[in-house]
Design brief:
The complex is a heterodimer of chains A (about 100) and B (about 220).
Chain A lengths: L2 E8 L6 H9 L14 E7 L6 H15 L5 E7 L2 H16 L1
Antiparallel strand pairs in A: 1-2, 1-3
Chain B lengths: L3 E6 L6 H11 L2 E6 L10 E4 L19 H11 L4 E4 L1 H8 L6 E3 L7 E9 L15 E8 L3 E3 L2 H9 L3 E5 L11 E5 L5 E4 L18 H12 L1
Parallel strand pairs in B: 1-2, 1-3, 3-4, 4-11
Antiparallel strand pairs in B: 5-8, 6-7, 6-9, 9-10, 10-11
Helix pairs in contact in B: 1-5
Classes of the chains: A alpha+beta (about 100), B alpha/beta (about 220).
Enzyme class (chain A): ligase
Pathway (chain A): Purine metabolism; IMP biosynthesis via de novo pathway; 5-amino-1-(5-phospho-D-ribosyl)imidazole from N(2)-formyl-N(1)-(5-phospho-D-ribosyl)glycinamide: step 1/2
Organism (chain A): Streptomyces zhaozhouensis
Chain lengths: ~100, ~220
């Protein structure tokens, strides 16, 4: 089963007060050197079939009409590399152990 | 025959009852419309009320925009049906592309709830005809995502065409570009604003009765 990831971010010119609040909290937590934080959304779409060009075109349509509001947001559509998914799961486990 | 004004209830709408009551106080007949029903039941105008339709999931108004009732409302609005979007209703109208721009999280991140002074910049829309041009009014404002944004070209176009209908006075409560509190489409039948006129229609419950002319305006417009 193929997984397609859609990342949605506010356009650079749109103020992101949530990202700013996160960035301002970092020094208090002892994390220095982060100049800017912008917060977005990640959608994981699991396809019933292959992630071929037809499926991706359909997903770009979903992203442009529904997942993102293109007045204020940009989006990127990509097919997730299976290896990436495995390593992400491993990282999550490590995080949980610690 | 009394004029029928539909008020849509989405899952998560809060102010549908108040909007219906405002219609009644203005002399119209409120008609409850349901998000899942495409039929507008022969109403002459529609109000999209405040609240948190579909829990504000994804983005405010983003899911409501695809509900069955909105299909009919979007088509009707393009043919001149008067539509007023209040707060969440304004967000739905922007998501539907019936109005330009978008509403984003308040720049200070706090939910704001206050009696807000506004200037009526355009008294020629279907929903503002009973105001004097330039009238200053006070109605409640309550939102977490009320910052109006659009690109500079769109903002310039709105200003040039007189489509900024309401502007915040005294303070800009949410970071809206150019203090914009409400806008209209080119035809003037679709109006959206973040403040809540339906909460200012009688002395007992509102800070003023400055909201009443919204509802009398559309009734007069429909009779004329």
């Amino acid at each position: 089963m193929a997984r397609v990831v859609v990342d949605v971010m506010l356009k650079p010119e749109i103020l992101d007060p949530q990202g700013q609040a996160v960035q301002r909290a970092l020094p208090r937590l002892g994390f220095e050197g982060i100049a800017d934080v912008r917060q977005g959304k990640r959608f994981e779409l699991d396809l019933e079939g292959p992630a071929d060009e037809a499926a991706l075109a359909r997903i770009r349509e979903i992203a442009g009409t529904f997942l993102a509001n293109t007045v204020i947001e940009d989006f990127v559509v990509r097919v997730e590399d299976p290896a990436e998914a495995v390593s992400a799961d491993n990282n999550a486990e490590e995080g949980a152990v610690r | 025959m009394t004029t029928r004004v539909g008020v849509v209830t989405f899952p998560g709408s809060l102010d549908d009852r108040d909007a219906g009551r405002a219609v009644k106080l203005a002399g119209g007949e409120p008609v409850a419309l349901w998000h899942g029903d495409k039929d507008l039941h022969q109403v002459d105008a529609v109000i999209l009320p405040g609240g948190f339709s579909y829990g504000d999931y994804l983005r405010c108004g983003a899911i409501a925009r695809f509900s069955p009732v909105m299909e009919t409302i979007i088509a009707g609005a393009r043919d001149g049906l008067p539509v007023l979007g209040i707060c969440n209703g304004f967000q739905v109208l922007c998501e539907s592309h019936l109005l330009p721009g978008a509403l984003t999280r308040n720049d200070h991140l706090h939910f704001v709830c206050r009696d807000q002074r506004l200037r009526v910049e355009n008294a020629a829309t279907a929903w503002t005809g009973d105001f004097a041009p330039g009238a200053e009014i006070t109605v409640p404002l309550k939102n977490g995502e009320g910052g109006y944004v659009a690109d500079e070209a769109t903002l310039d176009e709105l200003e040039a065409e007189g489509r900024v209908v309401f502007r915040y006075l005294d303070v800009n409560p949410n970071g809206s570009r150019r203090d914009i509190a409400g806008v209209t489409n080119a035809a003037g039948n679709v109006v959206g604003l973040m403040p809540h006129p339906e909460h200012a229609v009688e002395a007992l419950t509102g800070p003023t009765t400055d909201g009443l002319p919204f509802f009398t305006s559309v009734l007069k417009k429909l009779v004329a």
